[in-house]
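Q: Structure tokens for this one, please.
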Amino acid sequence: MMPDARPSQAESFASTLAGLLHFNKSRFFADLALFREHFKRKLLSIKSTQPAQQDSHPRPRRFQAATRPY
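A: Here is the predicted structure, written as tokens:
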């Protein structure tokens, strides 16, 4: 008599779980890429509306002290 060709319950559960994890992982990275694009556009729109004021500011003293040679 031939053994049953269907996978056992544990094997079928494992393959289903692996498929779900793979789907969620690919979905997660797709959502992450979309979020990065959205955030980049948002950041660029903020930068374009505000004048670049940090270039004219002198560095804070604590950073100057750290870069001074000894």
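A few notes: Helices lie at 9-49, 61-67. The radius of gyration is 28 Å.
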